[in-house]
């Protein structure tokens, strides 16, 4: 495992430093993809970067098999809407991101080895597909937005989203519970990446720097 000089903070403590690290990582990842004839999608790298910082340990360049399990066997199933024909691209992106970090020498020394990570992604692929099809794993937010998408609401239509939220909040508790219990199949939502994190999935709360546990470098 190697590590070159990082032009960003891999363990950002603030939204501002996270946005700088996120932007640079995605920019370099996209450039690496073009150089390796991988034709990166719009927003390539957003999922692993976002979920590592917002829901795991916040270390953007330290990756272990357990992190891959959390992101791709739990968080995606709970939070991310992906068209069926786009499912393969999710783990392809993960493989490319791991390879990118290793090749540019940004994969943190405390990470699992690149080949171990790539082999692990291959092993969990069948489980990833099965879990993504299991509506019982959906969060309440994903159930709501899946239902909304089935009714024609677009998540990139701010006015429609706000109207849906207002309408949902105005319903009685039993009515709201009935909505989030539904998880219709066959939702079609075409986006450049074929996936979306529905609104209402807040990141992990940030602790003050002095109280956060020290991370291994």
In summary, what is this structure?
The protein is built from 8 helices and 2 strands. With 217 residues, the chain is mostly helical.
Biggest sheet overview: 2 strands, antiparallel
Alpha-carbon Rg, integer: 18 Å
Strand content: under 5%
Mean pLDDT: 78
DSSP helical segment count:
8
Contiguous runs where pLDDT drops below 50 for at least 5 residues: 180-196, 198-217
- Domain count: 2
Number of strand segments: 2
The best one-word shape is: globular
Percent helix = 40-55%
Distance between termini? 12 Å
**Category by helix and strand content:** mainly alpha
The ordered string of helix (H) and strand (E) elements is: HHHEHHHHHE
Task: Tell me the strand order in the biggest sheet.
Answer: 1-2
What's the helix and strand layout?
Blueprint: H1 15-35, H2 46-55, H3 65-79, E1 81-82, H4 87-103, H5 114-132, H6 140-150, H7 158-170, H8 173-181, E2 195-196
Antiparallel strand pairs: 1-2
Describe this structure in words.
By secondary structure, the protein is mostly helical. Helices cover 53% and strands 2% of the residues. The protein is built from eight helices and two strands. The chain has a two-stranded antiparallel sheet. Helix 1 packs antiparallel against helix 2 (46-55), helix 3 packs parallel to helix 5 and helix 4 (87-103) runs antiparallel to helix 5 (114-132). The longest helix has 21 residues, at 15-35. The radius of gyration is 18 Å and the shape is globular.
């Amino acid at each position: 495992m190697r590590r070159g000089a990082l032009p960003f903070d891999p363990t950002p403590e603030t939204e501002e430093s996270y946005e700088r690290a996120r932007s640079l990582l995605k920019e370099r990842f996209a450039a690496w993809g073009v150089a390796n004839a991988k034709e990166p999608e719009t927003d390539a790298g957003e999922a692993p970067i976002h979920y590592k910082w917002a829901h795991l340990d916040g270390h953007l360049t330290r990756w272990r098999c357990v992190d891959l399990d959390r992101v791709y066997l739990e968080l995606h199933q709970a939070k991310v809407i992906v068209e069926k024909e786009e499912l393969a691209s999710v783990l392809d992106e993960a493989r490319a991101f791991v390879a990118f970090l290793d090749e540019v020498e940004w994969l943190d020394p405390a990470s699992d080895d690149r080949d171990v990570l790539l082999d692990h992604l291959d092993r969990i692929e069948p489980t990833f597909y099965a879990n993504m099809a299991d509506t019982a794993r959906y969060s309440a937010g994903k159930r709501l937005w899946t239902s909304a998408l089935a009714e024609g609401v677009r998540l990139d239509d701010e006015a429609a989203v706000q109207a849906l939220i207002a309408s949902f909040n105005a319903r009685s508790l039993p009515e709201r519970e009935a909505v989030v219990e539904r998880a219709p199949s066959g939702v079609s939502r075409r986006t450049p990446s074929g996936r979306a994190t529905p609104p209402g999935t807040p990141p992990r709360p940030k602790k003050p720097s002095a109280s956060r546990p020290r991370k291994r470098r």
